[in-house]
Amino acid sequence: MTFEYSQWTATSLTDEQRLQNLMQLFSYMVIKTSGDVEEALEWLRELARQYGIFDENMTLEDLIEKLKELGIVEEIDGSLQLTTRGLQRLRKDALNEIFSSLKKGGIGAHENPATGAGVNRLSETKKWTFGEQATNIDLTATLTNTFKRDGIDNFQISEEDLEVYETEQSTSCATVLMVDISHSMILYGEDRITPAKQVAMALSELIMQKYPKDYLALVVFGDEAKLMSIAELPFLNVGPYHTNTRAGLQLARQLLRRCGNVNKQIFMITDGKPSAIFDDSGRLYKNSIGLDPRIVNKTLDEAVTCRKEKVTISTFMVARDPYLIDFVEELTKANHGRAYYSTLDHLGEFIFVDYIRNRRKKFGIS
C-alpha cells in the first residue's frame, strides 16, 4: 500500500471543512436567488468554471447528492427545492456567517453600567441588602470581612460582613424586523437585499435557539407593508416599489402593541428615503423626487407615536447620501431611537450587537 503526501499549510482544509464551506456557499446563493435551488446551482457551476471551487474529490454532483442525503433539498416535479430542514440550514449558516465576522468582544461591549437583582451572576460583588438571594453570597469575601474586623479567634459573622455577587437579568424582548423591499435595494447594480435577508434569517435563528420566549416578527415594506413568516424569508424579492416607511412603522407598532409589557423595538433596514404614504382616503401618494415634506412629516409623526408607546426604532442605513442621513437623523430624534450607518459587510455585526445589548437589562432593588 502506498500513500501520497502533500505539504500541509495552515490554510489546508479537511474534506469535511471543504464540504461545510461549499454548503455555506450554496446557502448564500439560495438566499441571493430568492430560494431558487436550480438557479443557485447554476451560479455554483459558473463559479466552478471561473475559480475551480470543485475537484475530483468533491464535484458539484457530489454536493447535490450530499444535500439530498442530509434532507436539505428534494426533487419535486423534476426540480430541486428546499425542504423544511433546508430552510433551517439556511438560517444556521447565516447565523454562523454573522457570528464568524463579529469582532472579538463585540457582543456585550455596550453594557448598561447599573447592576442589581437578577439571575446571571457577575464577578463583581457588593454589600448585602435585604432581599438578596442567599445563593449569591460570596463566602470568601464575607469571611475575609469577618476576619479583618474581629480576627480568627473571635469569629462571628454579622450582617455588615455579608457580600453578594452582582447579578444581571435578561428580560423578554419583542422585536419587529423591518426590511425595505423597494426597487432601490437593487438599484445601480448593488445587491442590498441579500445581506438584509441573510441578517434577518440569522437573527431569527439566534432568537429561536437562545431566546425562544422572545417575540420576533418580520415586516417588509415597499408601496405597502406586509407581515411575513420567517419561513418565507429566503423567497423574498425586491419589487418595483416605492418606500412606504410610514406603513411599515404602523404595522410594526400594531404588532408590538399585542406583546404586553416587555421591551419593544423595531429594527429597520433601509437604503432610501420615504417616498410614499397612504392618504386619508387610502390612496397611495408617492413622490420619488427629493424629500417630499408631506411624506416626511407623516413618517416622522409615526416615529413620535412609536416613542409614546415606548417602541424604540433602530435604523440601519446601507446608503450614505447626505439628504438621506438628514432624514434618518430627524427620525431618530423624533423617536429618541438609534441610527447606524453601515456597510453591507458589517450590517449583521451592528444588528447583533444592538439586539443583545437591548435585551440585557440590569435591575436594582430600592
Could you describe the 3D structure shown?
By secondary structure, the chain is of the alpha/beta class. It has three domains: 15-82; 120-167, no CATH class; 173-361, Rossmann fold (3-Layer(aba) Sandwich). It has helices at residues 15-32, 37-51, 60-69, 84-101, 139-150, 193-210, 245-257, 293-308, 322-335, 347-359, and strands at 73-76, 79-82, 120-127, 163-170, 173-180, 215-221, 225-228, 263-270, 276-278, 284-286, 311-317, 338-341, 360-361. The strands form four sheets. A six-stranded mixed beta sheet has the order 7-6-5-8-11-12, sandwiched between helices. It has a three-stranded antiparallel beta sheet with strand order 3-4-13. A two-stranded antiparallel sheet has the order 1-2. It is flat. The model is unreliable at 5-10, 103-121 and 361-366 (pLDDT under 50).
Helical amount among residues, as a percent range? 40-55%
Oligomeric assembly: single chain
Cα(first) to Cα(last) distance is 77 Å
Which range does the strand content fall in? 15-25%
Query: Which structural class matches the secondary elements?
Result: alpha/beta
